[in-house]
Amino acid sequence: MFAIPLGDGAELRPLEPWRAEEFLAHMDRARDLVDEHIKLAAAVTDPVSARALLTSYAEKQAADSGRIYGIWLDSTLVGGVLFRIFDAATGNCEVGCWLEPAATGRGLVTRASRVLIDWAVEERGIHRVEWRVSSANTASIKVAQRLGMTRDGVLRESSPHHGVRQNTEIWSVLASEWRERAGTSG
Prior knowledge:
By secondary structure, this protein is of the alpha+beta class. Helix content is 37%, strand content 35%. Strands 1-2-3-4-5-6-8-7 form an eight-stranded mixed β-sheet, with helices on both faces.
């Protein structure tokens, strides 16, 4: 198995089905913060649902249509990043994230997202990386900004969550922009 150091005692690792119990324990710690903006917490409520979600991402990885990774801080799973959508044929993907309260404010999601975007652009030839976020999720919007993404627009009242229709912002970065910021010509 591999682990990619993120600095400050943090690592990025694959989040595989055999980690379902650890993932559930993490989601129980993260539930209130995560549930505020995304449906992940509602999808992971017991060992069976935790394994099912991780298995669905293992199947997506096998089909080259998505991947999920955990962020460990001092050997404790504290969050994650994923390719919710990954389409190498069209050159488009969507990166997403979540984090538990104890790990916020350390730049972990930004660093982990950079690893995913670097891999998608440089290894897989992805042309466009998207970040979709509720307009109310200011922390996630700040990550998109730190990643150098551009706000493409807002899908007004497009996403129902807890009985309220939320605006969804779409942010993106193109491979040429990513490489320019990284100082490479790819």
